[in-house]
Specification:
α3 packs parallel to α8, α4 runs parallel beside α6 and α5 packs across α6. The longest helix has 40 residues. A seven-stranded mixed β-sheet has the order 8-12-13-3-14-15-16, with helices on both faces. It is globular and about 65 Å long. It has a domain of 193 residues: P-loop containing nucleotide triphosphate hydrolases (Rossmann fold, 3-Layer(aba) Sandwich). About 2% of the residues have low confidence. A hairpin with a 6-residue loop joins β14 and β15. Helices cover 40% and strands 23% of the residues. By secondary structure, it is α+β, with helices and mostly antiparallel strands. The structure holds adenosine-5'-diphosphate and magnesium ion. Magnesium ion binds next to α1. The site of magnesium ion has 5 residues, from α1.
Length: 387
């Protein structure tokens, strides 16, 4: 899949902007705070309905404006599509998603239209940080190829929130276990979908990640392995086992005022030569593993959906040494890629790319295509893209 046009209207520091990106590598360079990440954020919004860097939509609309929008025109296997996200913070419906100019009712309807994978320095946390970061990695990947998974996640989370609310009340005021039963029942089917899909996906990525890691490190003897860790990972009848586990845990859950076990506590166990990477990995090994996981995410999406996702690389080039950069460039050839960096030379290894200079004179973002010798063409637009 390829993005053929990006349009922003009152989005972050952009007034009106149109870019017609290259089908290969698009490099955005410019000073800090000029608006490079804002461009990637707009793509992420049109792919997953939310920002990659914040859970809040506050501050998306350009200061001084009441509404803003980002819109991508793309070509995928089913043809040409337009995906737009419109932000109206003062209205009851603060965010509207439009596919081919039609409003969609549910977030799940946009999943998979524009698939993207983002890699930024924070992703090193996938290796070192807590389980929630690794679950997010898995959930983002599977949601983009399986709408049913995304819906199951929403249903499970909603049931979990309500079960937790009851547990909290029971902790202080007591009450009957019967109140928990309905929510446990509502969570059981989604739990099964979540666990089954996570199992299947981990099976695919573990092999890809092992190969990719060996390719980047150049050391066949270093064996990178991913294992799915779940309280239900071995279960053959997930719904039944989930309900049994919920019943057995009720007493301690009430004591804690929290649901202690279930797919919301799943994790990926990452090892290098059998040793836990969270504890033992060097900084270099962490970088290689994070890069391998991201590249495996790209390949997994491609393998399972038949579409090549769009790749977003935010400020990672300067974090990678020449060997890793070369491996990365070799791997990303089939994908349309959007790269940000502060120095144009961060990607000098790649001869075939379109380079854009991003600047923000007086706070207003500008993107200028820069050709050899800096002959420039301003990519701006007069009409807003609110629909
Ligand atoms: N709603 C907004 N209105 C105007 N400017 C904004 C808004 N939100 C963010 N910005 C500006 O965008 C800039 C940050 O852009 P960003 O893409 O993160 O920069 P970078 O080029 O370093 O990646 C900051 O200068 C910030 O003030
Ligand atoms: Mg940035």
């Amino acid at each position: 899949m390829k993005i053929e046009e990006i349009r922003l209207t009152h989005f972050r520091n952009y007034g009106n902007l149109t870019i017609t990106p290259h089908e290969g590598i698009n490099l955005f360079f410019g000073q800090n705070g000029s608006g490079k990440t804002n461009l990637l954020e707009a793509i992420h919004f049109c792919a997953l309905g939310k920002s990659h860097r914040t859970n809040s939509d506050a501050g998306i609309v350009q200061q001084g404006e009441t509404e803003g929008a980002c819109r991508m025109e793309l070509q995928n296997q089913s043809g040409r599509r337009t995906i737009a996200v419109r932000f109206t913070p003062a209205e009851a419906q603060k965010k509207t998603i439009l596919i081919d100019q039609k409003k969609i009712g549910r977030f799940s309807d946009m999943m998979g239209c524009l698939q993207c994978v983002i890699f930024s320095p924070e992703d090193l946390g996938i290796i070192r940080e807590g389980p929630s970061v690794r679950r997010r990695y898995l959930d983002m990947m599977i949601s983009q190829i399986n709408r049913g998974y995304f819906i199951a996640l929403q249903q499970y989370r909603s049931g979990l929130e309500q079960r937790n609310a009851i547990l909290k009340t029971m902790k202080t005021q007591g009450g009957s276990n019967a109140y928990l039963e309905d929510f446990e029942q509502a969570m059981a089917m989604p739990a099964q979908i979540i666990v089954e899909e996570r199992r299947k996906t981990v099976e695919v990525i573990t092999e890809l990640a092992r190969e990719t890691y060996a390719g980047i490190s150049g050391r066949e003897e270093e064996s990178f392995r991913i294992q799915y860790r779940s309280s239900l990972s071995k279960s053959e009848n997930i719904q039944e086992d989930f309900l049994k586990m919920m019943r057995e845990n009720r007493e301690q859950d009430v004591h804690q005022g929290l649901t202690l076990a279930g797919p919301h506590r799943d994790d990926l166990h990452l090892t290098l030569n059998g040793q836990d990477m969270r504890v033992f990995a060097s900084q270099g090994q962490v970088r290689t593993a994070a890069l391998s996981l991201k590249l495996s995410q790209l390949k997994t999406l491609r393998q399972l959906s038949g579409e090549s996702p769009v790749l977003l690389l935010d400020d990672v080039m300067s974090e990678l040494d020449r060997t890793r950069r070369t491996s990365l460039l070799r791997e990303i050839t089939p994908y349309q890629t959007f790269v940000t960096c502060t120095d144009e030379s961060d990607l000098e290894e790649s001869p075939d790319k379109r380079v854009y200079l991003v600047s923000a004179p007086e706070g207003q973002g500008q993107v200028v295509m820069s050709k050899p010798g800096y002959v420039t063409k301003k990519e701006t637009l007069q009409e807003p893209c609110f629909t």
